[in-house]
UniProtKB/TrEMBL annotation:
<protein>
    <recommendedName>
        <fullName>Secreted protein</fullName>
    </recommendedName>
</protein>
């Protein structure tokens, strides 16, 4: 009876740990998707910067918010690096806009977002 109880406890613990990992992976995927959406909006904002430069800042703020949420919820080294790279790209674009560049190069952001998507893709 004790062996069965120990075995059952081990299986339940494994399942709960697996669910925790799955939940974390799903959160990562959802956040990566939100960031991808924000990056798409940033691309549109840069393309249409002559119409409204404030859209760039709004997109950058959205990406920063999602990155902050993701950074606070992970201890994965690859994910942390991808978040750091994306954060650096956001700050670079933000600095360029502050310095008057209405059509900044957003390649560092799109590249880092792609890498983040790879890290967050399960399997």
């Amino acid at each position: 009876m004790t062996t069965l109880a120990v075995a059952t406890a081990a299986v339940v613990t494994t399942m709960l740990t697996g669910c925790g990992a799955l939940d974390k992976a799903m959160d990562c995927v959802k956040t990566a998707d939100a960031i991808a959406t924000s990056v798409g909006k940033l691309q549109d904002a840069v393309s249409n910067a002559s119409n409204d430069v404030t859209q760039i800042e709004e997109s950058l703020n959205s990406i920063s918010t999602e990155l902050g949420n993701l950074k606070n919820s992970t201890d994965n080294a690859d994910l942390s690096k991808a978040v750091d790279d994306l954060t650096k790209g956001v700050e670079s674009v933000r600095d360029a806009v502050k310095n008057g560049d209405a059509t900044p190069d957003i390649t560092p952001i799109t590249s880092a977002a792609t890498e983040l998507g790879k890290v967050c893709t399960p399997g």
